[in-house]
């Protein structure tokens, strides 16, 4: 089991570096063009049209801690998508990173319950030091006024809300726009290694089940340079896309005007 986990971790590391190397050469103009196309495509999704509450990631700001030439802070911009959501009458929630001690006791216990279901002892005993929560924004002007919290302390500098209604303490989210570094057309995803969205989705799904609600639709958005094919996985000890028990698969992936759906939800 431990050897298998190490092989998967190595394959993930390889794919992260492979995609980061590609992203070094993507121009800001291309990122903007692709982001606008993605915003239009998401807006036309039936799942988006039917959603009242939406969680959206904030794209990373370029940081002196992690130079752009690394490629790891190049991703789809979400400003147009967020503005569209407000224009379409959605309730919009944005992420904030908190210390695990700031998570309610009920949610901490819920997460531990989910972890104990994992097959690997390493994963089942893991409890992160930081969590993500989604806070409600009143309007797009409030989004534009956000600033980077604790700039310089993390490589990924992101504008965050300081307050707002917590989605998990209200009615929950109907749809979440999920970031990532690596994607496949089968709606598989590898993030940047922190586990924020995998952990959040795990919590949200369990909270939804406890309240008799369906979990949120998970919609990934990616640049075309972030898509990998089967021959990109070169570690022969991993016969398929490298995933661990805690990894959350997307329902939908949007790349420009292309829409990929997971075969069954």
From TrEMBL:
Q: Which InterPro entries match?
A: FTHF_cligase (IPR002698), FTHF_cligase-like_sf (IPR024185), NagB/RpiA_transferase-like (IPR037171)
The protein's UniProt keywords, in alphabetical order, are: ATP-binding, Nucleotide-binding
The reply on keyword Nucleotide-binding is yes
Which GO cellular component does the record give, naming just one? mitochondrion
Q: Does the keyword GTP-binding apply?
A: no
Catalytic reaction equation(s): (6S)-5-formyl-5,6,7,8-tetrahydrofolate + ATP = (6R)-5,10-methenyltetrahydrofolate + ADP + phosphate
The similarity comment for this entry is: Belongs to the 5-formyltetrahydrofolate cyclo-ligase family.
- Name of this protein: 5-formyltetrahydrofolate cyclo-ligase
Q: Which organism is it from?
A: Lipomyces tetrasporus
């Amino acid at each position: 089991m431990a050897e298998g986990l190490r092989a998967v971790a190595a394959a993930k590391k390889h794919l992260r570096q492979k995609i980061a190397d590609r992203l070094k050469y993507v121009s800001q103009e291309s990122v903007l063009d692709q982001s606008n196309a993605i915003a239009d495509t998401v807006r036309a999704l039936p799942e988006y049209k039917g959603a009242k509450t939406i969680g959206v990631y904030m794209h990373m700001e370029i940081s002196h801690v992690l130079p752009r030439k690394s490629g790891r802070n190049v991703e789809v911009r979400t400003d147009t998508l967020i503005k569209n959501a407000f224009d379409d009458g959605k309730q919009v929630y944005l992420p904030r990173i908190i210390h695990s001690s700031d998570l309610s006791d009920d949610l901490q216990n819920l997460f531990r319950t989910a972890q104990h279901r994992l097959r690997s002892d390493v994963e089942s005993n893991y409890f992160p030091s930081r969590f993500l929560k989604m806070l409600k924004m009143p309007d797009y002007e409030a989004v534009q006024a956000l600033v980077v919290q604790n700039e310089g302390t993390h490589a990924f500098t992101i504008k965050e809300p300081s307050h707002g209604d917590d989605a998990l303490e209200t009615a929950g989210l109907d749809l979440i726009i999920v970031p990532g570094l690596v994607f496949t057309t089968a709606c598989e995803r590898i993030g940047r290694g922190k586990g924020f969205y995998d952990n959040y989705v795990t919590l949200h799904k369990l909270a939804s089940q406890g309240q008799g609600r369906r979990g949120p639709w998970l919609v990934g958005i990616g640049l075309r340079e972030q898509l990998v094919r089967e021959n990109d996985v070169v570690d022969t000890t991993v016969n398929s896309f490298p995933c661990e028990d805690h990894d959350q698969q997307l329902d939908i992936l949007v790349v420009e005007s292309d829409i990929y759906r997971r075969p069954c939800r």
